[in-house]
Amino acid sequence: MRKWSMQELGRKSVEDFKQADKTPLVVVLDNIRSMHNVGSVFRSADAFLIEKMVLCGYTPRPPHRDIHKTALGATETVAWEYAETTVEAVQSLQANGYKVYAIEQAEGAVFLHDFHPGKEKIAIVMGNEVEGVSDEVLDICDGCIEIPQLGSKHSLNISVAAGIILWALTEKSVFHKP
């Protein structure tokens, strides 16, 4: 066994990435505190060819060396925009035909493995490291998706949760293009 070389991996250039068909999924970051978490979510969004990210409230925004440290250039490939509030971002996405789902442990949440979005355009809201998705945002979301957890902590770092969610939603056949 040997590792693939960079050339064998066939990585997309920045321009190729921008021209590629994207996974129809928008990631909304609700007042994330850590620049490293923001950079990590950018990197996962790049890995799964996510449509775009919306950075809300006091979520740090590129360019910044601490975001770049974990994003490793993904801020140059993944489209992103800023919204002053997460409520504003969610309402705008809904007005543009997206179903918006909070990633949260909440009453009425659907476990990730049971979530089947159909052909609708999807946006997910990832919450603050301490408070999670804010109550005012949770109230206007179209639903809630929960990552089942079996241990004693019942919480994941946002960058880990984002990687799990983005993989699972990308992996579901509705997001595969022939």
Describe it for me?
With 178 residues, the chain is α/β, with parallel strands linked by helices. It has one domain (20-175): 3-Layer(aba) Sandwich (Alpha/beta knot), CATH 3.40.1280.10. Helices cover 36% and strands 21% of the residues. The protein is built from 8 helices and 7 strands. It has a 7-stranded parallel sheet with strand order 3-2-1-6-4-7-5, with helices on both faces. Helix 3 runs parallel beside helix 8 (158-171). The longest helix has 14 residues, at 158-171. It is globular. Residues 174-178 have low confidence and may be disordered.
Radius of gyration: 16 Å
- What percentage of amino acids are in beta strands? 15-25%
Structural class: alpha/beta
CATH top level assignment: Alpha Beta
* H/E topology pattern: HHEHEHHEHEEEHEH
Please name the CATH architecture: 3-Layer(aba) Sandwich
